[in-house]
Amino acid sequence: MISIEFDIRLDMIWNYKELFITGLWVTLALTAIGYIGGVILGLFLGLGKLSKKKWVYYPCKYYVDFFRGTPLLVQILLIHLALIPSIFGHSLGFFVSGSLALILNCAAYNAEIIRAGIQSIEKGQMEAARSLGMPKREAMKHIILPQAFRRMIPPLGNELIALLKDSSLVNVIAATDLLYAGKVVAGAYARFWEPYITVAILYLLLTWIFTKIIAYVENRYSNSYVPPQRRRVFSFGRTSVGR
Q1: Which of 23, 48, 104, 125 counts the highest number of beta carbons within 10 A?
Q2: What does the DSSP 8-state code read for residue 168?
Q3: In the chain, which ranges are continuous DSSP H helix?
Q4: Signal peptide location in the record (predicted)?
Q5: 16 class by beta-carbon count within 10 Å (0-12 exposed, 13-18 middle, 19+ buried)
Q6: What is the pLDDT of residue 232?
């Protein structure tokens, strides 16, 4: 008969609380930089994949195929150990390498989300804008992208959560993130339940917070959303009519 005993020591987590706090901020910073940069670069890549010019389309296509078809861990190692040292002659640290790898990887996935979102808008929208004399660039900026953005929110939100968890892979180049804090505590005490459960709980908490934010944004930009002030006006109007 197998018996499992749990002897939880919270003091070891408390003794290294500063390390966990630092790791939390590093994880959030890597995720934020990687995601914002990935959305901006992904927008250009997504538009490039919609271009009819071959010299624009094919570089964007090959970029997306490469970063979607290779593991993020390999990309991090290539950028940190090969690309940056070959350009600058030395490493620029885990944060620069990790942020760059997350940006480039996230951009490839966001490019496909943005491309699909734009293509989901009826072609008549662009044709109507063009028939009114609006340049294609202005029509894309003011007509197509605002409508496509509403449809992009759920998959872009999923990409944010995925990037948050994937940022732990930067630990392979000695990043002082949440996973690093867990590894240090595990090595110091030769105990593994407490540090890694703590890391898992912190990631779970961050994921829950991001999920709530994404749900709010999705609801805020949905077609059925009614602002609170206007909702009160509607309610007052219905009450007056009822009387």
Answers
A1: 23
A2: G
A3: 11-15, 17-49, 54-69, 72-78, 84-88, 94-119, 123-131, 136-139, 145-166, 178-189, 193-220, 228-242
A4: none
A5: buried
A6: 55
Q: Which pLDDT belongs to residue 242?
A: 44
Q: Given this model, what pLDDT does residue 231 score? A: 54
Let me know if residue 135 belongs to a domain. Answer: yes
Stretches in the chain below the pLDDT threshold 50: 234, 236, 239-243
Domain carrying residue 141: 16-242
- Interatomic CA distance for residues 171 and 179, integer angstroms: 7
Residue 96 is encoded by which pair of tokens?
Answer: 């620069």
* Residue whose structure tokens are 């990935």: 38
102-123 confidence digits (pLDDT tens): 999 999 999 999 999 988 888 7
Q: How far apart are CA 30 and CA 27, in angstroms?
A: 5
